[in-house]
Amino acid sequence: MTRSSGKPDQRLRLLVGLVLLSGALVGGVAGWVVGTEFPASPPPEWPVLASIAGLVAVGGLVNIDVRVRSTLHGVAWTDAAILIGLAIAPSPWTVLAALAGVLSAKIIRRRQPIKSAFGVAKDTITAGVGWAVLTVLGFTGSLDILGVLSLAVAFLAMTLVDELLVIPVIALSSRTRIWERFRADWDIRLLTLLWRFGVAIAAAFLLEIDEQLLYALPLAVILGHLWHERWVRAREERLAWQHLAEATKTFTGVDLDVVLRQAVLKGSRLFAADELEVEVWLGDQQRLVRGADEISYDGPPAAAPAAGSRVYAAPLHGYRGRRDIGVLRLRFRNRVKMSEREEAMVASYAAALDTAVRNAAAYRQLGEATEAHAYAAAHDALTGLANRRELERQLAEALVDQASLDSRIAVLLIDLRHFKEVNDTLGHLAGDRVLAKVAERLTSGAGPNDLVSRFGGDEFAVLLRSAWRPARVSARAQRVLRSLAEPIEVDGLPIMVEANGGLALAIDPQDTEPEADAPAADFRSTAQGWQAELLRRADVAMYQAKRNSRPLVAYTLAQDPADRDRLALAGQLPRAVSQREFILHFQPIAELGSGQVIGAEALARWRHPTRGELSPGAFLDLLERSTQLSAFTAAVLEDALAAAAMWRAAGHDLRVSVNISARSLLDASLPRQVLTVLEAHHTRPDRLCLELTETLAISQLDTVDQVLTQLHDIGVQLALDDFGTGFSSLAVLSRIPVDQLKVDRSFVQALADLGDSGGPAGAAAVVDPVDPGSDAVAISQAKAVVRSTVQLGRTLDLGVVAEGIEATPQRRLLWELGCPAGQGHLFGPPQPADELLGLLTRGEGGRAGAVAAPLAPSPRVVPLRQSRGSGNRSVG
């Protein structure tokens, strides 16, 4: 038997009414049959009828309650008791005895009248179905094979009718689907059905042996019920915790939307709630997600529809003294008493959800911060235009995109004439307004697919796409410059802005136009080299325009004095490599807190026989385009590890860092070459760090991935240089097995004290000569980039090194932001290996290996420990 509770709606009332009417009809038919047959067929002895009624009453009193949302129903033994009665007494009398027994049980349990009436009517119908089946099958009361089969068919029919009557009522009252209720716990319902049938048949056989055992059957039913309930509860307990574990598996993701929605959908089924909602408070953001079988609301709590149902709430607890971040609410339409096990499960579910929400929120904040920093790193704070880094990135991408090459691209570099006079006369604030207006004018004058950027100071650059013909491109460039023809009004004062522009076209290497045969055409062997050359050519043309007082000049090779020198240097590279004209200088890398040197970066110099010592900028791009790159890389690795071995022999075990060209990563033999040099100098692989400066486009090549993976497997450390400039991203970190992040010097320079550089002699404070009003914004952005990079390094167990530290205030501020190490002229300029050894030997303040005094913690600073591993993981 089952019973249900809940406020019925119209369909529920109709169904219950039909059941009551059918039950009354079955009871009336049984009474009529008994009345008409009474003279000819005397009734069973009254103790037998009383025992059947009592057995049915006991079967109705002992049941197992099961909650479906806010509706409670139970599984009882009335069907087994009725089957026993049908086996030992005439069926009409059994129907009436069952009616009396069920009615007695309902009165004793004091159920609501409508529920009691439904239960009495349903069990009366069930008994009537059993009576009808046995009558059709000709059951005579004999318990032979045919008799047992007849009872089995009758019991099956009774069970089906019971399910068909009760399950729709439960589904309607709990607002669930009827088919779901039929499928729910079908296995346990089948087992209990077989158990009750077996008990009923066994009891019938015992009564055939001795009718006096009838009076002991209620006790047997109670004992069977107790065993059955214990088994059901144990199974229910086991499955509940299994379902809890399965539900919380969906919390392992880092998408907050998925976590909250899965928590609602899984939790409503797990706890059989009419509705479940999760409300979270993350900073200033408040969010409520509510639903059951599907999400019914997702938005601000204040705008959520009213829900007047009964609520069981569990807070999403804070930890370490922090406040709660939300609350989990189970909603029920009717009063529900939660068991101890359910309360424990809700608490466990809320704890798991709390952790998942915090993790997802932290991941989202990290992603948002990364996006914000990437945007800030790619855009100018004053004008909102793309900055120089973003221009270089998009230009490099366009140069490796065949579609862009087919449609041709060009670069227009613009310099504002006499802009310093605006700053000197009207002030920097007025100058800022002029720059902002210039940015708007240039954007309106450029095409929809062109990129307008602030190149720096009073210079702007425009990346012109679809540059099919030089004459047409020149006309487009003139249109951009004409956008500045009208005066710009600032505080009621019209200001004329004059500009000079230099135009350089990127010609496909396979083209046969004159520039394709230029001596410098080899610069196209790498995207970065090509991009740098285009910008250089635009700069050359712009200065020609300024010298000649012309608004626009297009680059021509004949007017470029630099190409012959570059060609001469390129021709001397084989001799320079073979005669070891390239030397290495080493810049120390120190712990910011202690000032102790923990590593050194190798920087190449060309000791030219006639031109003197040349910096890397004069020859590295030529090397990358030449056939001498592999030999140069081998020589640098040899000299760097020889220097490290010399320092180690003197008692200074430093990690040496070597910059690796992008083209070197395309050489599959590089890992074997590195391992050979390491073994030759008896150096552990982790004492060598290779610094990568390639873009995402190159890093996605399969060969590069394989080379980097092999280097990492050897044990060589990998560092991502210029991190935060826009070329690096979380996507790169997910592909490359990086061990270290190097904060770009531009962010470190932005941290300089504007009042006092505090750097070495001759150093000047980092101040934008055109836009000083944006210095505070730049410093704030630089701090955010450094702080997020340090936090990212700690989260991913990566070392962090800041480049370009020139002043003590920079060092202290970086240390306070959590950066563990850095390099720059504050700790020492690049110098030969033996001079660095002398510096290490002398030390500082009596400490060998130190290049600066230790920093004393300020009262507001709590130094951060490394997340895992030894402290040297950060850089050294």
From TrEMBL:
Domain GGDEF: 407-558
Molecular-function GO term, any one: cyclic-guanylate-specific phosphodiesterase activity
Polar residues bias (residue ranges): 867-876
Pfam families according to UniProt: EAL, GGDEF
Membrane-crossing residue ranges in chain numbering: 12-34, 120-139, 145-167, 188-207
Region of interest (Disordered), ranges: 849-876
Domain EAL: 566-844
Domain of life of the source: Bacteria
Keyword annotations from UniProtKB, A to Z: Membrane, Transmembrane, Transmembrane helix
Name of protein: Bifunctional diguanylate cyclase/phosphodiesterase
